[in-house]
């Protein structure tokens, strides 16, 4: 099962938080694009992962995430979730294990970055249930 991670920051730090996350992900080799008010984060090679699955080096395995920003009174929430990997690029059991490891690395990177920037208030991890939406 996939998880979604929410990082709560003070509302007046929301722009700083997004900039910190963007810079940290880029520094660790992710391609980051702003799309419809959210960050779309991509790493790896989609075609190679679809063709060769577990034979693709872990660093080249395709991964795609999105970071969305929402506001609640006094707080802003950055929501990091998996975004459309698709079955063809899952890479089987080995690929799933690699994706989980990469996910844990990315969530820790975002948490460390926000904490180091002095803007993180709280982190919440949620298990995604297929067919339901978070908001």
In short:
This protein is of the alpha+beta class.
Describe the protein's architecture and organization.
With 135 residues, the protein is of the alpha+beta class. It has a single domain, classed as Kinase associated domain 1, KA1 (TATA-Binding Protein, 2-Layer Sandwich), CATH 3.30.310.80. 34% of the residues lie in helices and 33% in strands. It contains 3 helices and 6 strands, in the order E-H-E-E-H-E-E-H-E. The chain has helices at residues 14-27, 46-52, 92-116, and strands at residues 3-10, 31-35, 38-43, 63-72, 75-82, 120-127. Strands 2-3-4-5-1-6 form a 6-stranded antiparallel sheet, with helices on one face. The model has no long low-confidence stretch (mean pLDDT 85).
Secondary-structure blueprint of this entry?
Layout: E1 3-10, H1 14-27, E2 31-35, E3 38-43, H2 46-52, E4 63-72, E5 75-82, H3 92-116, E6 120-127
Antiparallel strand pairs: 1-5, 1-6, 2-3, 3-4, 4-5
Helix pairs in contact: 1-3
């Amino acid at each position: 099962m996939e998880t979604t991670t929410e990082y709560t920051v003070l509302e007046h730090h929301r722009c700083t938080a997004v900039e910190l996350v963007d810079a940290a992900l880029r520094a660790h080799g992710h391609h980051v694009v702003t799309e419809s008010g959210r960050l779309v984060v991509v790493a790896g090679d989609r075609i190679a992962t679809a063709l060769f699955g577990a034979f693709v080096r872990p660093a080249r395995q395709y991964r795609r995430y999105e970071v969305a920003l929402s506001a609640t009174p006094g707080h802003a929430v950055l929501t990091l979730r998996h975004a459309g990997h698709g079955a063809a690029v899952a890479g089987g059991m080995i690929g799933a294990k690699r994706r989980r490891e990469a996910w844990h690395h990315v969530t820790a990177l975002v948490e460390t970055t926000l904490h180091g920037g002095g803007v993180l208030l709280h982190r919440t991890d949620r298990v995604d249930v297929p067919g339901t939406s978070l908001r």
